[in-house]
């Protein structure tokens, strides 16, 4: 196997990855303190975490909570290192793990145990006008041509990734209009998802709110057309700002139950029925909150991926885990960067970080000239498949 490119870091002034720590995280911490009446000890712990992440070093103490053995090994390997020397993916994951510790999410003797620090932001999106427009569009698909409906559901799931609340933390006015598809392997995706056989299709979710709502509509279509079950993989606990958990799916279904459109209420009913009979399986795994790439996924999760008819990975974080959050040449073929994956895989991702692979060289040159920040705005997207 050829040598992998170096990881993207957070040390380069002016880089997107550095701005996440120096521009996004301060706003994030201020939002949390504003959303909850945290006592002084929690507010002080959040401010101390922010200060440490901007100018400190990694302490030797392992952050509490589940998957403690993995985190012990990861922290032991980096204890004493300056934060700005860390790989971006590792540092960002570690920041959110430490954030959960600061808000006492895993402290069983704390009244803040199990309180999702991002719940107010998630719930606001479920009640917002953008989701209202999404559901109106979904209801309008009734009676549409089958091919047009299938295409609309796939694109809604893809562009739903623009609603990432982490992305919007310091970009509240970000353009969320549909943009340009830089790769479109949709035909290959459908050929794999609807192929004969009883193996499951796995959809690895990214964000709650508008995105998981669109994902559930896509899952409903897969349940109708696939020949085996569908698995929806979720985070085991809150992670990045809007990452979807089982509770978020439950909250979303309740929101759909209240919708004025009969088509939307029927969607929620079908999904519940599918869960009850085991045709739709909600799953999770500790690896989804590890600070690592899928290249080093635990054996049991790798076996699940290998036995699936297709694994559909949603969003930017899953993309970074898949190809590696590394300094790839954007013209590198997707099949090369994801070639290690143990089974057929599809990525649905809007570009919101420096990482890119599988971009046509001619289009790449034009993009770099026309819009140098094209990787960061969420207005370019990819449907990429490695069969």
From TrEMBL:
Catalytic reaction annotation: beta-D-fructose 1-phosphate + H2O = D-fructose + phosphate; beta-D-fructose 6-phosphate = dihydroxyacetone + D-glyceraldehyde 3-phosphate
A GO molecular-function descriptor: phosphatase activity
Entry keyword Metal-binding: yes
InterPro entries: ARMT-1-like_metal-bd_sf, ARMT1, ARMT1-like_metal-bd
Record-annotated Damage-control phosphatase ARMT1-like metal-binding domain positions: 45-360
SUPFAM superfamilies reported in the protein's UniProt record: AF1104-like
Signal peptide: none
Cofactor(s) of this protein: Mn(2+)
Keyword annotations of the record: Hydrolase, Manganese, Metal-binding
Domain of life (superkingdom): Bacteria
Metal-binding among keywords: yes
Gene Ontology terms describing biological process: DNA damage response
Family: Belongs to the damage-control phosphatase family. Sugar phosphate phosphatase III subfamily.
PANTHER family in UniProt: DAMAGE-CONTROL PHOSPHATASE ARMT1
Name of the protein in its database record: Damage-control phosphatase ARMT1-like metal-binding domain-containing protein
Source organism: Glycomyces sambucus
